[in-house]
Amino acid sequence: MKRNLCVFFAIAWVVMAALPLAVHAQEKLIRIGAMYPMTGRAGLYGIDSVAAAEMAMDEINAKGGVKGYKIDATFTDSKAKPAYAVRVATRYITEDQVHFLFGVVSSGVGLAVTEISKQHKKIFIGTDHASTQLTSDKLQPYYFRVANNTFQSMAAGALYLKELKKTKPWNTIAYIGPDYAYGHDQWNELLYNLDRWNIPYKKVGEYWPKLFEPDYNSFVTSLLRDKPDVLVVGLWGGDTVAFIKQAQAYGLLQKMLYFQPDAGGNYELMSAMGAELPAGLVLGARHYNNWPDTELNRTFVQSFHKRTGRYPTYAAEGAYAGIYAIAKAVEIVGNPDDTEALVKALEGLKFKLPEDPEGFTSYIDPATHQIQQVQAIGVTTPNTDFPPAKMMLGDWKVYKAEEIAPPPGYPATKK
């Protein structure tokens, strides 16, 4: 009898010990493998992206998830290094068996990870990097981007410069941007759009510092010699902050129009420079804390601030959008396992985002897998509504999604 009881309790103990594992195994999850830089000049973008993605996940999971599935994400520091990110992405797919790859800030990393996505037929949701190559000549069936690309920003920039000629005539332009795909795409696409809309200009200089360049002084002195009417800047993140601070010491910003239509208007610049940021800089970004003035955007910004104690950089809204894109696609398909059906669901997907003005809803173009959005460009002006910033953007110029999209056949149509 004693022996039988011992056997009974031993079996019961094994069953009870295994119970949590069995419950976990039965839990229905949408598994996401995310990569973002967490340190260095790009680190804030990654930290904000993680916070916003988790915010979106909490919102969705609090309502019961999607078709009985909870969203679950693993976040890894990409170190902004393509080779390292490739190893992480491969591990996510082969070991963690994720349903989606997600994130990435640097276009160089994005171009590397998209190859892993293609190889393993695993959907990659790009939330921040902007090189147009990913949605044009490097496009593959499993890649989707939920933030605007450089073409859209630079097309809006070309239209801005076209309008500017009427009030503040300009002729010469120079460029400085990082020496990799993202930087080169911006310059090439601005010139392409200036040409296709017959906007006259003369190039007087172009400069290619490395990413995370510590010293811009030689570039600043060269630009002062070039004396462009318009200085087009293609830097991003902490590089923008460092460049402007070093340019300030030479008085460069008072000698030419500072024009940065893709990543210049990020809140990181406003918060880092405070009252030192001069008025009159013309900047664009992928999301703004003070535009559009809609209930959805105000709620997003304030919820992020309540959660983190700071206002979001634009990378945050891209990550937030990416989680909702996944949720919408899984809701349509009914599960996260049918990759081909999810691809079809994402193609043409429409969903309202914080950066959408009234009357417009973001949508993913089925042909390019690129999200289509309204783009706004503003001018730095005093504003203390989002401390520690003392300057924000205002005097907005707004461009419709359709007018800034690449023409049919692009990039084959490039001159």
Top keywords for this entry?
single chain, about 425 residues, alpha/beta, Rossmann fold, 2 domains, 7-stranded mixed sheet, 5-stranded parallel sheet, 13 helices, about 45% helix, globular
Question: Which SSEs are present, and which pair or pack?
Answer:
Elements (H helix, E strand, L loop, with lengths): L1 H25 L2 E8 L6 H20 L7 E8 L4 H13 L5 E4 L3 H14 L2 E4 L16 E3 L4 H18 L4 E5 L4 H16 L5 E6 L9 H10 L3 E4 L4 H11 L8 E4 L6 H7 L8 E3 L10 H14 L5 H20 L5 H8 L3 E2 L10 E3 L6 E2 L2 E8 L8 E9 L1 H4 L11
Parallel strand pairs: 1-2, 1-3, 3-4, 4-5, 6-7, 6-8, 8-9, 9-10
Antiparallel strand pairs: 10-14, 11-12, 12-13, 14-15
Helix pairs in contact: 2-11, 3-4, 5-6, 8-9, 11-12
Explain this structure to me?
The protein is an alpha/beta fold and 415 residues long. The chain has two domains: 205 residues, Response regulator (Rossmann fold, 3-Layer(aba) Sandwich), CATH 3.40.50; 170 residues, Rossmann fold (3-Layer(aba) Sandwich), CATH 3.40.50. The protein has 13 helices and 15 strands. The chain has a seven-stranded mixed sheet. A hairpin with a 6-residue loop joins strand 12 and strand 13. Helix 2 packs parallel to helix 11 and helix 11 packs across helix 12. The longest helix has 25 residues. The N and C termini lie far apart (90 Å).
In a few lines, what is going on in this structure?
With 415 residues, the protein is α/β, with parallel strands linked by helices. The chain has two domains: 25-149 and 293-372, Rossmann fold, CATH 3.40.50.2300; 151-290 and 375-404, Rossmann fold, CATH 3.40.50.
